[in-house]
Amino acid sequence: MMEKKLGCFQWIALCSLLLASVVSSKHHGNPANDLVDVINKNRTGQRLKQLNTSPGLGCMALQYAEQCNGNCTSNNTLNCHPPEDDFTEVFAPNCGVELPTLGTISGLIVGCQHKYLEPLETFSHVLVRDKKTLSLLSNKTHSEVGVGMIRTHKGSYWCVLFSSSSHTNSSFVLEALGHGIKQKKGCFSGTSTPCSSGRKKTSPFFGSILIMFSLYICLVQDF
Fold it and tell me: Which residues lie below 8 Å from residue 69, measured CB to CB, with a gap of 6+?
């Protein structure tokens, strides 16, 4: 009987650990913020100034990435070129950026990957793959940066926007006291909101049912 009970509790513990691993596997952070950190570390390594993080600019980068969803080629090249007017006529309004605060966008880097890569890998293998993008990253006129990322079944899409606005505290200002319009997909830098990957969240209720069922099986075996 003792051996049977021990095996039973071990099974319940295994189910609990399995459930915990499934829940913890969902990325609860914001990889767009992580990529900004990677960008700034690269710049300081070149003795360049760090860039300020602009939530408004980041949200517009997310809008750009979202519009390019589905345009990742077989060799992980992003074939997407939204019109320049979309920044003021589409992206900014979608984010709730106050139009009078729109600054000057001084650079753009985009990339895609059919499988998800962590921010550091994305930086080196997806976004900065040639001298042109490396030169753009190292531009001394940049003062702000915003990163947007969206992940779907079609792949992960990244967009990095740079700005050379002189008044960094008053450019790309989001409405609603800086909250702007809530984004339901992806994530952008400058906010602590976790990234939404579009996957179903594991339900705690389902996990409780699983453990209760395991306990029931054990009790039946004991009797």
Answer: 150, 152, 154, 157
* Confidence label for 7 from pLDDT (cuts 50, 70 and 90): low
Is position 201 within any domain? no
Residues 6+ apart with CB under 8 A from 36: 51, 53, 145, 147, 189
Query: Contact, 71 vs 79, CB < 8 A?
Result: yes
pTM score: 0.76
Q: Would residue 98 count as lying in a domain?
A: yes
pLDDT digits (tens, 9 = 90+) for 99-124: 999 999 999 999 999 998 999 999 99
Per DSSP (E only), the strands in 68-202 are 105-113, 144-152, 155-163, 187-188
Tell me: pLDDT of 26 over 90. Answer: no
Question: Both tokens of residue 169?
Answer: 């505290």
Domain region containing 151: 31-188
CA 162, CA 106: separation in Å to the nearest integer? 5
Pairing relation of β-strands 105-113 and 155-163?
Answer: antiparallel
Distance CA 127, CA 113 (A): 10
Q: What is the CATH number of the domain that holds 154?
A: 3.40.33.10
